[in-house]
Amino acid sequence: MANIQNITTPDFFEWISVLKAKIQSARNKLAFSINSQILELYWEIGQDITEKQQKSGWGSNFVEKIAEELKQDFPEIKGFSRRNIYAILQWYRFYSEKYQFVPQVVAQIPWGHNRLIITKVKNIDEAEFYCRAVAQNAWDRDTLEVQIENKYYLTAGNSTHNFNNTLPVKQSELATQTLKDPYNFDFLGLENDALEKAIEDELTKNITKFLLELGKGFAFLGRQYKIEIGENDHFLDMLFYHTELRCYIVIELKAGKFMPEYAGKLNYYLSAIDSQLRKLADNPTIGILLCKKKNKIDVEYALRDIHKPMGISEIYIDKCYSGQYKAAIAFC
Fold first, then answer.
1. Of 6, 277, 299, 315, which is the most exposed, with the fewest CB atoms less than 10 Å away?
2. Cα–Cα distance measured from residue 69 to residue 101, given in angstroms and rounded to the nearest whole number
C-alpha cells in the first residue's frame, strides 16, 4: 500500500483541484440542460393551452381541469399545480408577444427566478436584462428581488466615466457595465447628512451587503489602505480587486457634492497603486468616486484630461431619500 504522506503533496492538491473543477463544470452543464428542457416544456404547455382556449372558448375551469388531470398522472411533478399552470400561461403570454420560442437568455435561469421577474417587470427588454444579470452574477431569488426593487435596470452602466478614452474597448465595455449610478446604501440605516467616516464605518460593518450592491467580481482588500509616496503616508478609503476586470479598484467616498479637485486626488492614488501593487498580468487600476451629488458638466470637464480610468457615481443613503428617487423614476 502506498504511503498516504507521499500523496498529500502540492502536486496532488493541484491535480485534485482540476478534477473537482471538471466535476463541478459537468454538474453545472447538467443542471443548465435540465432547466432549459423544463422551460422549453413549459413554453409548449403555455402555447398549447393558449391556442386551445382561443379555439374552444373554454374559461378558467379549463385550467383547473388540466391541473387535475396532470397531477393525477404525474403526482411526483410539482410544476403541474393550478397555481403554477397559471404562472406558465402568464410567462408564455408575456414573452410570446415578441418571440416564437423561449428566448435563450430566459431559458438560462431557474423557473423560480422567471416567475419573480414576470410578476415584478412589465417590459420584455427589462425582463431580459434581469435574466442576463441572474445568469452572469448567479443571484438567488432574494438578491434578484432586491435588485429589481432598487431599479438596477436604470442604474447599471450609468456612471459618468472616461473609460472610452483610457481603456481598451473590451475592458472599457466591461468596466462600464460594472459601474452603477446611483448606488443605493439605504441598508446602512444612516441619515442623508451622515459624514464620510460614518458611511465608511457602516459600509465596512455591512461589507456583504456592500459587495452585493457593487456587483459580481469585487474582492475587498481593506479600508484606509496605507500607501507610502516619498516620505508621506496616504490612506485610500477602500481598496478592492476585481476578478473579472483583473485590476485593482480604488473607491473614494465623499459626503458632499462632487468637486473637480477630487478627480485629481483620485488620479494621484491610481498612479501610486499602478506603481506599487499592479503586476504584469493586471490591467490598469480603476478609480470610483462616490459622492452624494454631482453636476454632469463639472464631472465631464474634470475627467477630460485625466488619463487614468475612473468613474463618478452618486449614492443614496437614507431610505426616505432613496424612496423619493424610486418614486421619481417610476413617475417618469
1. 6
2. 26
